[in-house]
Amino acid sequence: MTRRSRVRFPETFLALALFFLAASPARPAGFSIFAQGAKASGMGLAFTAVADDPSAVFYNPAGLGFQKHFSAMVGGSLLSKVKGEFEGANPFPGPAFGVEEQSKSTFYLPTFYAVLPLTSNVNFGVGVFAPYGLGFRWADAEQFSGRFIAQNAVIQTADVNPVLSLQVAPSLSLGVGADYRLSRVQLERNRAAINPFTQSVVDVAHIKLTSDLQDNHGWGWNAGLLWKPVPTFSLGASYRSSIKVDYDGEGKFTQRLTGNAAFDAAVAASLPQGKQKVAVTIDFPASVNLGAAINLPANFRVSLDADWTEWKSFNRLFIDFANTAIPDLLRPTNWKDSWAYRAGLEKKWGSFAVRAGYYKDKSPQPLADVGPILADADRKAYTLGLGYDADRWGVNLSDIYIDFDHRDTRGQVNHDQFFGQYSEKANLVAFDFRVSF
């Protein structure tokens, strides 16, 4: 495989990106992460037509055009999996395993944004954040009924997103930026075989695929528009392009001994030795966000968003081994484009604010693709937030409770031939701190 040259950024931003990649991933819609600011999270993520803090770099870069001071904002989100369960059914794996659980770790997702006015109507901004992540890990992985399909599936990303905004008129701002994405993947599962001496299915090896970091990157772009035809009403639109990342990594096969010397020797002779070169490609989807916001009497603000994501680009998972003696893995996913609908409310008392919101996301994953690697679902989310925003500094805190619909593959066509019901709930706490000069 041809190695790509490494693109270099200023050391500060690259160090931030590597720190984000060290954090564990989360999994909201599909495997995108739209919670990239505490204020937006408190308002149900309906922020495209608001975009009035530095997180506008992510939500709508045109929002920077109305921000007239240097600002820097640091923060992050803590996502906890409240519930993650699978209950098997016939014909496989059957009900004998009972209710099996996902690992209930808490994942940390940091954010950093800065805004620098260049002229009276041109601003520069930069953001470092993690817009995609997947962490689908099964507890008691060596006994999990789906261990021959997946025990652990991880996708981690970190984006460095510089943008420029131009306020072309007092009521209209435009923004455009470049999006540099670092990413890595990890997949783990066991290999099964039939022991000819006992005629039973046994674990004979553990397979772990991990990508290298330094060459796993891709480029994209984003743009936005924010229009305020009257002071109390705004319309916003933003776009993020698709990004293709080609991962170069390695696979390692570790034998699981069965206790039968003759059989174990035969398995050892058949397993690939050492680290095997592997390549994986993931097409991260493009997205369009449309929003409106209105300021009402008594310092109320209402915001609405409709967000579209082009998930059909994620139509397969292909794992290509350089060693032709090892079979490649081609797994169709056939995801579909999806919509999310969001609503937010904010009430202010001077510099203090209380926020609430609701959103509904449609899962892009068809039922045929639901399995131990990922069991995504439609979800409803309820949000609350608090904030203090003065001219020179501000702090925001929010909470999102995410209620996933059940996914049930019983009696359905399924790529993995793995049947049962998946249940999941999650909670996300977001916080940030801003300073302005």
Secondary structure elements and their pairing?
Elements: H1 11-22, H2 38-42, H3 56-59, E1 71-88, E2 99-101, E3 106-117, E4 122-129, E5 133-137, E6 152-169, E7 172-195, E8 200-211, E9 217-230, E10 233-240, E11 243-255, H4 261-270, E12 276-284, E13 287-296, E14 300-309, E15 316-321, E16 329-332, E17 338-349, E18 352-361, E19 379-389, E20 393-404, E21 407-408, E22 420-436
Antiparallel strand pairs: 1-2, 1-3, 1-22, 3-4, 4-6, 5-6, 6-7, 7-8, 7-9, 8-11, 9-10, 10-13, 11-12, 12-15, 13-14, 14-17, 15-16, 17-18, 18-19, 19-20, 20-22, 21-22
Order of helices and strands: HHHEEEEEEEEEEEHEEEEEEEEEEE
* Unreliable residue runs: 1-12
Helix content: under 10%
Spatial strand sequence of the major β-sheet: 1-3-4-6-7-9-10-13-14-17-18-19-20-22
Largest sheet: 14 strands, antiparallel, barrel
